[in-house]
Design goal:
Elements lengths: L3 H35 L3 H12 L2 H23 L6 H4 L2 H41 L5 H34 L5
Length: about 180
């Protein structure tokens, strides 16, 4: 059993950083990225600012790791070190577990799809700007594919995180 202070600190990190992670991904997926795409070439400067200066992919990945690690530690505590079969198979334990699976999936997708795709979009945008003119047909097609891939992955991860948050919010009340 962990100390009360450690429990409170982990719970604080899990909830506050988790809220930031969920809210940021939902905002990016459903508001910011569609606006950036609608802005056309001008949106490239916004993507460059977000990825290279603000380092949004790194910030979100860090928030996700902190949220998942603190959550797994809390789950470990509640399940007596993953040994309480009664708690693990209870409605509460299974609902927390389902939320954890959703969040871990988001980390995997974020680190293998979202972050690398955002960086490739930024690099391609830099190449296009360095060329000084309009993008070639090949560059435009590649940019469209990358933007579509990022938009789809962001929507998927945002929905998965909303499901994780929903599971976490009701888990203590599921029998």
């Amino acid at each position: 059993m962990m100390s009360h202070a450690l429990f409170l600190a982990l719970r604080f990190v899990h909830v506050v950083v988790g809220v930031f992670w969920v809210g940021s991904l939902v905002f990016l997926a459903f508001i910011l990225l569609p606006s950036v795409r609608a802005a056309g070439p001008a949106g490239g400067a916004v993507m460059q600012q977000l990825t290279q200066v603000r380092r949004v992919p790194t910030v979100l990945l860090t928030a996700g790791i902190l949220t998942v690690l603190s959550g797994l530690t809390l789950y470990w505590n509640d399940s007596a070190g993953f040994r309480s079969k009664a708690w693990l198979s209870s409605g509460t334990g299974m609902t927390f577990g389902l939320g954890a699976v959703f969040a871990i999936l988001v980390l995997v997708i974020g680190s293998t799809v979202n972050s690398p795709t955002a960086k490739r979009i930024t690099a391609l945008g830099g190449q296009i700007r360095a060329g000084g003119g309009a993008p070639s047909a090949e560059q435009a097609a590649q940019m469209e594919r990358l933007q579509r891939r990022l938009a789809n992955a962001l929507r998927l991860t945002a929905v998965l995180l909303l499901l994780a948050a929903a599971a976490m919010s009701v888990a203590r009340y599921v029998r």
